[in-house]
Design brief:
Blueprint: H1 17-34, H2 38-51, H3 56-69, H4 72-85, H5 90-102, H6 106-119, H7 124-136, H8 140-153, H9 158-167, H10 176-191, E1 210-216, H11 225-234, E2 240-246, H12 253-261, E3 264-267, H13 273-283, E4 287-290, H14 300-303, E5 310-313, E6 328-331, E7 348-351, H15 373-376, E8 379-383, H16 392-404, E9 408-412, H17 420-432, E10 440-442, H18 449-454, E11 461-463, H19 472-479, E12 484-487, H20 496-504, E13 510-511, H21 514-526, H22 536-543, H23 550-571
Parallel strand pairs: 1-2, 1-4, 2-3, 4-5, 5-6, 6-7, 8-9, 8-11, 9-10, 11-12, 12-13
């Protein structure tokens, strides 16, 4: 999500031989840096500092060069020296902020970006990164404020606009109508200018295979992996030909597995949106599936061009895209009840039977344990969700539960929770709400997935976040035999927990108000045995539920695809049946 752009403040050289020598060295250092000769660049900038020890620009460039080399400790020290010698150098503050983000130090980075904006009020990159920092801290109103400030300066940034749209899903005050309106504004600003009237010549032939294309920036070790792999494995290859369009900067083991499950792999990482759209047309894709929505790395500008006759949104984003060129969205009757949900989407909703997703359980062989409170006498609540989902209303609700149960603790683990600044921010909130900070525990980053999953054995009951529910974290907890309590809200993002628990057959863990959520947590904590079934029993319930019924789920998706395709075919009734090879 981080938007990064290096900005430099190079001083003007003055007259004189010494100044000429400095200018020459700085010029050579810059050229070496740009061509990737980092050692030569370091040599040049070090020579500058021998002649001019307090040259802030050279110190900044040394920081940047060491940053490019991956020597972050040295980079940080040079950035800090540069900013101390020249407090007016916005680029030093900005690039130090970027480096701190890469180390997970969100709160410190925020101060750097704010200083950069004080010096350069129209620094779009710093403004947007302030927004991202607030986003990751769960302060969505502030995040949206800064995204809007950045957009006012750079209204052509489709990705910045997308982040602003996605942030609305975290706000408990946002309505479905407001989210839809924001998404439609994205379309008007960025999508409609790209739209091309394409005469799709895909073969109208009911007996041929349909070509299905999936586009994602997350074909990697990411939550998407646990939901796309079951479908790719179960697709009926006699009826569907599968293409994956991958926008992956850092491929990993999951990338290789997904690649092996696709019939055709297309690396679009460095391709423009226009080039990707043309490639999709050339491939003759019949149904193009978006797996990112307005999330980071999305390719909505491809979908805006309508390169495939039928386009569908699914899985990776909890709401409408706002694009009229995306025809359908795959949901279920719990996440998106008929009637009320339809009004909040630009797409036509296709409700899959059961749940809108299918889960691939972890490969690790780890046994779920009994409720830890039976052993320790202390009841432990837990949440392994991103702090971005931990808004003031949620934290107030959790604090109410903890006050009612003085012999309980809360274990938190999630992205950026290793950052002392993030921890202190949360602890300060709990302190204001009357909770002793010794009752709030943070798990450090764990080096392996096995250790991460084993940590669930230290939790009695997981508390789902709202209004933006967990998904992967909820299913992980259930697989590890830990029940999850959820609060059902008024839109998809806040109804995913209810959908999962309904499909699991555990509706008693679904609540509909904050008070009923609090009451249920207190009731369950007061009688740990009431949490049964849990442990191996709950895992078995998950594995035999529709949530892991891979082939049944694939049949539901394929039926949806076939129905959408047949609907498009009917619009082509005036055309003669063509060959199996489409022309573009």
């Amino acid at each position: 999500m981080r938007l990064r752009k290096i900005k430099k403040n190079r001083p003007q050289a003055s007259a004189g031989s010494a100044a000429s020598a400095l200018a020459s060295l700085l010029d050579k250092g810059g050229k070496a840096q740009r061509r990737g000769d980092l050692d030569q660049a370091i040599s040049c900038y070090t020579s500058v500092l021998r002649l001019s020890p307090n040259n802030a620009f050279a110190l900044h460039e040394l920081g940047l060069t060491y940053n490019l080399k991956g020597e972050l400790a040295k980079a940080e020290s040079y950035y800090r020296l540069a900013s101390s010698l020249d407090p007016e150098m916005a680029s030093a503050h900005y690039n130090l902020g970027n480096l701190l983000v890469s180390q997970g130090k969100i709160v410190e980075s925020l101060a750097c970006y704010q200083r950069a904006v004080q010096l350069e009020p129209e620094n779009v990159d710093a403004l947007s990164n302030i927004g991202v920092a607030f986003y990751e801290l769960g302060q969505m109103a502030s995040a949206i404020e800064y995204f809007q400030k950045a957009l006012a300066i750079n209204p052509d940034s489709s990705h910045l606009h997308s982040i602003s749209v996605s942030a609305l899903h975290y706000l408990d005050t946002a309505t479905s109508a407001e989210i839809l309106q924001s998404a439609k504004q994205w379309w008007l600003a960025h999508g409609r200018p790209l739209y091309r009237k394409i005469l799709h010549r895909n073969a109208v032939n009911p007996t041929r295979k349909l070509k299905v294309g999936y586009i994602s920036p997350d074909f990697r070790e990411h939550s998407i992996y646990y939901f796309i792999t079951p479908l790719l494995k179960a697709h009926d290859r006699s009826r569907f030909d599968i293409f994956c369009y991958a926008d992956i900067n850092r491929p990993d083991w999951a990338t290789e597995e997904i690649k092996g499950l696709s019939d055709h792999w297309r690396d679009i990482t460095h391709a423009s949106d226009e080039a990707v759209a043309l490639n999709i047309e050339r491939d003759g894709i019949d149904l193009l599936i978006d797996l990112a929505g307005h999330m980071t790395g999305n390719r909505l500008c491809v979908f805006a061009q309508k390169p495939a006759p039928v386009q569908i949104s699914w899985l990776g984003y909890p709401g409408t895209t706002g694009l009229p060129t995306i025809d359908y969205r795959l949901v279920d009757t719990v996440t998106d009840p008929p009637g009320e949900a339809d009004q909040g989407h630009s797409e036509e909703l296709i409700r899959l039977p059961g749940c809108f997703l299918c889960y691939q359980p972890p490969a690790e062989d780890i046994d779920p344990g009994p409720p830890p409170s039976l052993r320790t006498g202390t009841f432990t609540f837990g949440s392994f969700n991103n702090p971005a989902k931990m808004n003031p209303t949620l934290l107030t609700t959790w604090a109410t539960i903890l006050r009612k149960l003085p012999n309980s603790h809360l274990l938190l683990k999630g992205k950026h929770l290793n950052d002392c600044g993030v921890q202190n921010s949360l602890l300060n909130t709990f302190t204001r709400l009357g909770i002793d900070t010794t009752r709030i525990c943070f798990s450090p980053h764990l080096p392996s997935r096995r250790e991460h999953l084993t940590l669930y054995n230290g939790i009695d009951l997981c508390l789902d976040t709202f209004p933006y529910n967990g998904t992967t974290t909820t299913l992980e907890a259930l697989w590890m035999g830990v029940p999850v309590l959820t609060l059902r809200g008024d839109r998809h993002a806040s109804r995913v927990g209810a959908s999962i628990l309904q499909a699991l057959g555990r509706p008693e863990l679904i609540t509909d108000t904050q008070q009923s959520y609090i009451d249920a947590a207190i009731r369950l904590a007061s009688d740990p045995l009431a949490l049964a079934p849990r442990g191996a029993s709950l895992r078995g319930q998950l594995l035999t539920s529709p949530l892991c019924a891979t082939r049944r789920f694939a049949e539901g998706v394929e039926s949806a695809y076939k129905g959408a395709w047949q609907k498009w075919e009917k619009t082509q009734h005036g055309r003669a049946l063509s060959s199996d090879h489409p022309t573009t």
